[in-house]
Amino acid sequence: MNASAPAPALPANSYLNAGYGIRSWLLTTDHKRIALLYLASVTFFFLIGGAFAGLIRIHLLTPKGLLVSAETYNKLFTMHGIIMIFFFLIPSIPAVLGNFLIPMMIGAKDLAFPKLNLLSWYVYIIGASFALFAIVSGGVDTGWTFYTPFSSLYSNTAVAPAAIGIFITGFSSILTGLNFIVTVHTMRAPGMTWFRLPLFVWSHYATSVIFVLGTPVIAITLLLVALERLFHFGFFNPALGGDPILFQHLFWFYSHPAVYIMILPAMGVVSEIVPTFARKPLFGYHFVAAASMAIAAIGFFVWAHHMFVAGQSPYAALVFSLLSFLVAIPSAVKVFNWVATLYKGSISYDTPMLYAFGFIGLFLIGGLTGLFLATLGVDVHVHDTYFVIAHFHYIMVGGAVMGYLGGMHYWWPKITGRMYPELVARLAAVILFVGFNLTFFPQFILGFLGMPRRYHSYPPEFQVYNVMSTAGASILAIGYLLPMIYLIWSLRYGKIAGRNPWPATGLEWQTDSPPPTENFEKTPVVTWEPYDFQNRPDLGLSGPEPYAPQGAAVAPSPPAQD
Amino acid sequence: MFAQAELPLFPKEASGFAPNVDALIGYLIAVSLFFVLLIAVVTAYSFVKFRRRRDKEIGVPIRGNLKLEVAWIAIPTLLALVMFGWGAVIYLHERQAPRDTLDIYVVAKQWMWKLQQPNGRREINELHIPAGRNVRLIMASEDVIHDFYVPAFRVKQDVVPGRYTTMWFRATEPGRYHFFCSQYCGTNHALMGGWVIVMQPAEYEAWLGGASGESNPVAAGEQLFHQLACISCHTGLRSGRGPVLNGLYGSKVSLADGRQVVADDAYIRQCILDARVNVPVGYQPIMPVFQGVVTEEQILSLTAYIKSLPKPGGEEAQAGPASPSRRGKP
Questions:
Q1: Considering the entire predicted model, what is its pTM?
Q2: What is the C-alpha separation between A413 and A64, in angstroms, rounded?
Q3: Domains of chain B (ranges plus CATH)?
Q4: Is A9 in CB contact (< 8 Å) with chain B?
Q5: What is the pLDDT of residues B167-201, one digit of tens each?
Q6: CATH number at A31-539
Q7: What residues of chain A, 376 to 415, have a C-beta less than 8 Å from chain B?
């Protein structure tokens, strides 16, 4: 149980009651309100993408396919991928939690460019409208990867609207990234040095670098596809001297780093949650911060590991395989540091902590199976099979979505001023974890057995694992619906949270919940190191026993290998 | 066999590569299990041992340990380098076909596979091969990217329009094995598969000989060679406007731009489609462009015919060790 704050009522003035009516939301430049605009939009797209996923799983219950025609099935998985990746996962944590929290975490009143921030949301909505148009005008059947020449010449579906939608939405990412980078550089409160930044901010800084450097490439690439479709330019069409493999290089040059766009912010969430609920500083702060930057940097040099069987030079494959192993190391470093943080902590099992360790478990499996795919001789077998599907869902759903939900629970009291119901929330976290594993673990085995991805029908020997997967998906669906219900319920009936219910050390917890429009009454001054519970009498906590001097090497009995 | 069980965990092993790939997968699974168990045990232990006992309690402020950081950077790196090296050895072996292969020509199109044995026998969505022989597939696509994948052999290769790609394997166990298209290619992608039928060599020879009344690719190629008026320049005489094609296949050709290339399948294909890319010394780039005029299957027939032309010395041209690489050797 957490100490509830003395305040029995919500603060009189907050960003939520700073204005009423539709205009006060649609024309707001408050980063917190824009975050809520994003929250509503990405939740909408999550529901659509999730509905497509549900139909896919039901269809695959039988070898011949239960529900839809081949054309429709191909559109379902394509739209599921496009919506979940470009309109849910990529904006989810950065645009919702990042937008809300980054200025507060560094002690600023807003982002550096508040109007640009609002523009980003509108650009996202315009792009998303194109994607919705693509759905209602019949859908797209190219797969979210848009491989040429199928996408540019052969598909007779709404490829161009979808590509243009992603092209436009890309600018939203670029602007958000720019905004974050400038904000972190220029708007930190006095005393908030780079190495006092919360790791959430570090991971968003790394994410923003990828936004700014990578997104223009996918934008141009999809524009080239649209041009080839509409005006028959010969970029990728071999009959006109183009090269279909060139598309894959361009596409993955962004879309592999995009995986890190999805996972780095979730890692940032976990790095906030673990110290709070272990009540001690994150183990190896500098290594975790550096790991984020290393992932962002190395992540740009691994793209062709998606093309080991595409007919590229074997020597290129060797280089990209080696680099792919290197990018795995910083992720491993993070996992070890999170787990080591538990040592001699004061651990509570609140919902965010359950999500954080759900994340760590699933991300660990996702990361380790990534090693299988980086290994050349193994990738040739499991490439483009359900093994890959399972792998990236462990990273993107098990990782990114668990992180997102963990973060939503952790900061829900800050965003709304009210607590969610703890018991049912813990139950939902456990349901999600079980449902997720039942859905996706059988797909690893399907991949080993050789079931290719994107099959609307399959040989009967694959059925048993598909049935398991679909059963898991139904549990997973319950796990997603529960938070939506009780979080909405808590808006009215939740316990008043107070400023710092956990309590946690970050600046965002130093102000009212929900915060006032300008975030802080006066600019905070930071005099403590990150995640310092020891020298913070304001938190009202006390140590178990006399402390070892701070910074001294209190050698933990190694929770590591050997 | 696992595959016969209720819950199969591994596909059948039916190629020379399969045991090596599976051994490597075993290593990867062992390393993964070690780390999953390690993290799970340490986490579970900590969650119990260090659980919060008093509401206001805080943990011991340990900020890190350099030795541990070095250890958990170095050890995973070493384990990963073994994965890299082992995987690379298998991959390079898979990419480098031996010299004595049985060559099968494969044309992929939405949504079927056409395969052709060396003697011209054609198959659709079925591939008969002898056990114990090295088999090489030389593959082209008529439309989009496809992928030839035999799970029991642990190999796959994309088939990319506009070029040849190749793969090879040695089947070890007679039997019927699924092959799939594993690169998404449109509506009936899931139906674009078939069976690889591995036979005892004698059985295979008998099956191969049983082909009667099928079109011979050399004859088809010869017919095309006249029909497309190739013969008017490639007269077979040194005086012709085009090079002599007898004995061309597998030989070294000196090009006007100074390159020396081996005249393999990819070279001949490129020359037919657009000869301006490879102009041999002493000739003018006057050959018409056949891009869009001939299909991949017709190119295969023409290539078969060119291969069959006797060497100038009189002996039969032999299908040499030419490896079809794109636009000559790198």
A1: 0.89
A2: 48
A3: 2-48+63-95 (1.10.287), 102-209 (2.60.40.420), 217-308 (1.10.760.10)
A4: no
A5: 999 999 999 999 999 999 999 999 999 999 999 99
A6: 1.20.210.10
A7: 376-381, 383-385
